[in-house]
Amino acid sequence: MLLLYNIILFIFSLFAIPYYGLKMLFTGKYRHSLGPKFGINRPDLYQDMKGEPRVWVHAVSVGEVTAAAPIIASLQSDFPGACIVLSTSTETGQAMARRIVPASVHLIYYPLDIPFVIRKVVRQIQPDIFIPTETELWPNFLRICKRQEIKIVMINGRLSPRSFRQYYRTRFFWKQFLADIDEMGVISEMDGQRAGALGMALTKIHVLGNAKYDGLAAMVSPALREDIAHRLNIADTDRVFVAGSTHEGEEIIILDVYKQLLNLYPDFKLILIPRHIERGREVIRLVKQYGFQDSLTLTEINQGLSRRNQRVLVVDVIGELFKIYSLATIVFCGGSLVRKGGQNILEPAAWGKVVLYGPSMEDFRDEKTLLEEAGAGITVTDSHDLFGRILALLRDPETLTRKGQIAGQVIAANRGASQRYASLIREVLMSKNRIS
């Protein structure tokens, strides 16, 4: 089966490598990550990787880095002499890691799942343990780690309904590679049941919670809010509607709702943050078509243009979403009024914000349930419902404040998972007789 996988991977690479090469050439995207993904790194990268045990944590992108960061902090506390390496698959994940992970952690890009590339990078790092965050399964990598007796512990494991369906169709293939994982820590009972249905041994599955709560709670700070408020010229008394991680089709709904809000609250501001920043130009054009000619982008602000009376800001820069949620009076999380499975509603909740979202929240079902049971999350069905819900909250500021406080308390109350994941990792390392 592994041979068949590698044949398919080779055929795919014949088309993918030229595509990404051209994209790098004409857009600049992947310029920093493409070489390292093939194991091409600067010669001195590995020279400073000293210490024992040698721990390699992998986090695909921004969300996974947020979950991995508090676990890494716990590991550093447990093993002050450890060499800890954090890999990401995306450049946005790497940028986030530089901001929230200690400088003593060595940052690299995760290699492509090509055997000779993997062997080269593994040989350089020489990890005692490999720790993928969430459900990151690369057959060649897992098999090579197993053959070289490198322990594998998955942390913050989750299987969304969509991911589970995709894996389940080919479970006969994945079962053999799940056997290479020594222990699997998952977020919820449902994630554990899904992993078991794919063939993971039930004795290896541990329900330990969501480490993202720890990461988000640690990131919230008045200084962070003050910084972004100053940059965007947002006063404490300003009313701000933040629509985060929106997808195509949702900006139209948000702009319709915003126009209605302006009829009642002329001073309201709107901050639109598309999920994919390459859509920034498309979104700003749409904003101007709706009559907001005075709108501007965060890129323009970063280039020196000051925001004055502009009502609409389009964020076309990576890494600002979490901070901008701190400015919100009202929050809508996208990917939910279109069938995209939703986006991370925990980020605004960590700032003590009530969160509104559409019915498509399949990828964040547990988070949705948690917030709604506490009364801090609200499902809306369409633009009419969204406007009505927002209006009700604005007309009852005491309820808006109380629900927001509850949201923040929910995040704080669910902390502690990072310590549990660190304990699981410690047990596996001890079983390998690498530490006392």
Task: Describe the fold and architecture.
This protein has 436 residues and is of the alpha/beta class. The protein folds into three domains: 1-30; 32-211 and 416-431, 3-Layer(aba) Sandwich (Rossmann fold); 221-413, Rossmann fold, CATH 3.40.50.2000. 50% of the residues lie in helices and 14% in strands. The chain has 20 helices and 14 strands. It has helices at residues 2-27, 34-37, 62-78, 91-100, 115-125, 139-147, 161-169, 171-178, 189-198, 212-219, 222-232, 250-264, 280-289, 298-302, 321-325, 346-350, 365-374, 383-394, 397-413, 417-431; strands at 54-58, 83-88, 106-109, 129-132, 151-157, 183-186, 205-207, 240-246, 269-274, 296-297, 312-314, 330-333, 355-357, 377-379. It has a seven-stranded parallel beta sheet with strand order 3-2-1-4-5-6-7, with helices on both faces. A seven-stranded parallel beta sheet has the order 10-11-9-8-12-13-14. Strand 10, helix 14 (298-302) and strand 11 form a beta-alpha-beta unit. The longest helix is centred in the first third of the chain and has 26 residues, at 2-27. It is globular and about 65 Å long. It starts with a helix and ends in a 5-residue tail after the last helix.
